[in-house]
Amino acid sequence: MPRGINKRGWHYITNNTDESRHSEDKLSFYGAHNFLLVRDGSTCFGLFVDFPGKVYYDIGYTRHDLFSFHTETPDYDLYLLSGGNENAICKEFRTLIGRSYIPPKWAFGLAQSRWGYKTEEDVREVARQYKEHDLPLDMICMDIEYMQDYADFTVNKERFPDLAKLSADLKAQGIRLVPIIDAGVRIDPNDPTCTEGLEKGYFCTKADGTPFVAAVWPGKAYFADFLRPEVREWFGHKYKALTDCGIEGFWNDMNEPSLFYSPERLRAFLNDMAALREKDNIEQEEFFPRVVGGAMGLMNSPADYASFYHEVDGQKVRHDQVHNLYGGSMTRAAGEAFADLRPGQRTLLYSRSSFIGSHRYGGIWLGDNNSSWAQLLANIQMMPSVQMCGFLYSGADLCGFSSDTTPDLALRWLEFGLLTPLMRNHSAVGTRMQEYYRFPEVLPAVRNMIRLRYALLPYLYSEFMKAALENTSYFRPLAFDYPDDPDAREVEDQLLLGEGLMAAPVYVQNAHGRHVYLPEPMKLLRLRAVDDYDEEILPAGHHYIRCALDEVLLFLRPGHIVPVAQPANNTSELDDASLTLWSFLPDGESAEYRMYRDDGVTTEYEKKEHWKTLQIHHS
């Protein structure tokens, strides 16, 4: 949802939407996560609306003291969770909805992505430049250009003559290729995905039973009916064309589904424009609704979503009534197939569109943001919200996807992004190139911050695995751990990270510091690098803390230990056995830390030997 952690004062619609303008006036974004925490004085409860279509919320918008919601049809399930504070209720909810997806450990390294890497040489050049500039890297993502005519499960052999060799060569350097898969299937009589889907009746249909058609990147496309298990099995196993090339990770996109136009509505619009062409003067009463509104209204039209159908248990169900299930069901299709295609192995998977339930099969990124300081703050605020709904493996496009980033924004965003499970620098074609090696002015600081991410992985990975295996939280608002502290409830720009850390990112351009609220005494680490930092014990209360552009603020909570490794060029080179222990033990007491350490690639998560207890004893 748009806006911050505290949703009071606005109205919202959970309606999965390809919305690239992430401003405060928006009502819907890419995911439908119908779980809310409500605190009324000393009482806290959780509310989960299990419904596949639009849910409308009025959270203190009409009246500041009134909360209401309604669904388009009355057949929803409502869950009320009570008995405890925010952490207890979130844990209960997470237990109810099932274990969160766990990616391979290499997926916690840095990913470099851009819509615009058009050839194998482009990809190899990114790997070369990262190595030349001594910047760690684990992934390079490939957007739609690697495909033949933007068709799923194809490779353009002119641009990428040997994808398997490219994948193997990069993997030898510790770098994985992560290609995109879109929801729309290109209409092409020579494409087996298209012809098989038609032959087996696996695409969504119009009321007359013919396949629904709308245009996306490849032009006209069909859309797999992911609500049917046989279709999920068929589509998911299509990823084999790429796993056979050594690919071990994917990102699913355009799966709200995003529709550029339907042929019927485009034809009607063009006919309307032809009628207007005969006029000498188009007044603004016609220009805005018919020309501007007509053109913009072609994309993701509600009329299109109401014009096609799924088959559910032998019944025809109109798409708009189950719209929010679509993208997450695509994630499920891939996730279930990977268990068969790569048995016992973890496969990286993250999606743009999601609903609660798809968190069991893949992670998410926060969609097509832009290069602005407001979007950095939005990234900070959104993380605990998506994670309490089960989407632990999540993150935003660092530096921003659209618009042009700046060196200081790139660095400040990295200083928060180095803490998010998914850590991906991604940008759009036509924008400023923003690979981290392109900013010489801040390159030494960028290098130190990426290396800090790798040094913190023993802690970050352990806290992620605890959250996944024990249904706890990785990121939390301060109010979750300090529910009786009225000042803590006001803070939305500081986050608790696992058991022992609090992050206070700087998200204002040209700022040389920031206000920080400490609910209890903490140890400040003002880090310029993993081995270059100031430390200071600060009392509880409000502080203004200096923070230069090349510094990041982390706070150690009392009685806690944070294990830290030496930086590495990628996750495969990381030594998580030789550790330094950061700690804040105010009274000289002893402390323990439960660290999780496994091979990072297999699915045997439960073994007791994965857990190791680290201790600091003071006599």
Contiguous helical run count: 15
Task: Summarize the amount of helix as a percent range.
Answer: 25-40%
Count of β-strands: 35
- From the alpha-carbon coordinates, what is the Rg to the nearest angstrom? 25 Å
What is the arithmetic mean of pLDDT?
A: 96
Spatial strand order of the main sheet: 21-20-18-15-10-9-8-23-22
Quick one: overall form?
A: globular
Oligomer: single chain
Strand content: 25-35%
> Helix- and strand-based class?
alpha/beta
Query: In CATH terms, what is the fold-level topology of the domain at 105-183 and 225-258 and 318-458?
Result: TIM Barrel
CATH class of the domain at 105-183 and 225-258 and 318-458: Alpha Beta
- End-to-end separation in angstroms reads 50 Å
Unreliable residue stretches: none
Helices and strands, with pairings:
Elements: E1 10-14, E2 31-32, E3 35-40, E4 43-50, E5 55-59, E6 67-71, E7 77-82, H1 86-97, E8 110-114, H2 120-132, E9 139-142, H3 163-172, E10 176-182, E11 184-186, H4 192-200, E12 205-206, E13 214-216, E14 219-223, H5 229-237, H6 240-243, E15 249-253, H7 263-277, H8 284-296, H9 302-305, E16 308-312, E17 315-318, H10 326-341, E18 348-351, E19 354-355, E20 363-365, H11 373-388, E21 394-395, E22 397-398, H12 407-417, E23 423-425, H13 443-470, E24 475-477, H14 478-481, H15 486-489, E25 495-497, E26 501-503, E27 513-518, E28 522-529, E29 532-538, E30 541-546, E31 552-556, E32 560-564, E33 580-584, E34 591-596, E35 611-616
Helix pairs in contact: 5-10
